[in-house]
Amino acid sequence: MIEFRSVTKTYPDGTRAVATFDLVIPPRETTVFVGSSGCGKTTLLRMINRMIDPTSGSILIDGEDTASLEPVRLRRRIGYVMQNSGLLPHRKVIDNVATVPVLNGVPKAEARARALELLDTVGLDRSLASKYPRQLSGGQQQRVGVARGLAADPNILLMDEPFGAVDPIVRTELQDETIRLQRELGKTVVFVTHDIDEAFRLGHQIVILQRGGHIAQKGSPKEILANPANDFVAEFVGADRGKRALHLESIDGHEVVVSADGTPAGVLQR
Ligand SMILES: Nc1ncnc2c1ncn2[C@@H]1O[C@H](COP(=O)(O)OP(=O)(O)OP(=O)(O)O)[C@@H](O)[C@H]1O
């Protein structure tokens, strides 16, 4: 469990990116921070692994205040996946994936063997292991980024707009993979996006943010759609425009979200 307690962040130039933020992120589920540009999503995410330190308040992981933990060690036990994969261009795919375990002291051969398994996990052919990132498609690079995020077998995976730069079809595939991985591996995923469709697809808990990290509403996709807290949320989720005249259909035990014209929009995650 990750807990934000009265967390604020003011940057040195005086920008108040996050004002008093409180949230509980349950374990082994996906929580999505969604909101428009500049509302504080990335700042919130990076405070979890101390890439950014809060100005005040505290963040607890399984009851332990992260302020008391050594930032580099904390970062190595939390997976982090970013938009442009963040792969090291001059290192082969396998070494990109093995980097953090090697830094953590895992013998190189063992880390590389595990990296190959992780390529399987994220649906990449092992033949890509000896290639350099630039020889891969954008979607493949993002998969490598996810494999790297999982390499130290972290309980927590932070994902910052990881699929923002790939085309819509690949994006959907990557979302499906993320749902599968989260379910199979039981990770606590914290995902940042400005795309409400992506948020609803992936999130068990959705946190809709406004400027200053202000929580406009939090809840399951169903709760938010059924009962938007205010006009801002209603507009943000498109509930007021009929765009999301969605309903649920139960198919083979899964709750499928279906739009007014009968197009399936996704499966509700719990
Ligand atoms: N290093 C910094 N110094 C000063 N202000 C910053 C810094 N980083 C972010 N900010 C400001 O803090 C606010 C929140 O930024 P943040 O990057 O967390 O938002 P975001 O919701 O992730 O935006 P985006 O979707 O565009 O990435 C913005 O006003 C931003 O300009």
Automatic annotation (TrEMBL):
GO function terms (MF aspect): ABC-type quaternary ammonium compound transporting activity; ATP binding; ATP hydrolysis activity
User: What Gene3D superfamilies does UniProt report for this protein, alphabetically?
Assistant: P-loop containing nucleotide triphosphate hydrolases
PROSITE patterns per the record?
ABC_TRANSPORTER_1 (PS00211), ABC_TRANSPORTER_2 (PS50893)
Q: Which domain of life is it from?
A: Bacteria
Coiled-coil intervals: none
Q: Which InterPro entries match?
A: AAA+_ATPase, ABC_transporter-like_ATP-bd, ABC_transporter-like_CS, P-loop_NTPase
Sequence ranges assigned to domain ABC transporter in this UniProt record: 2-237
Q: Which Pfam families match?
A: ABC_tran
- Might you give the EC number(s) for this enzyme? 7.6.2.9
Keywords, comma-separated and alphabetical: ATP-binding, Nucleotide-binding, Transport
Q: What class of enzyme is it?
A: translocase
Q: Signal sequence span per UniProt?
A: none
The record's listing under SUPFAM superfamilies reads: P-loop containing nucleoside triphosphate hydrolases
The record ties this protein, via PANTHER family, to: OSMOPROTECTANT IMPORT ATP-BINDING PROTEIN OSMV (PTHR43117:SF4)
The record's family statement is:
Belongs to the ABC transporter superfamily.
How is this protein named in the record? ABC-type quaternary amine transporter
Q: Which organism is it from?
A: Cnuibacter physcomitrellae
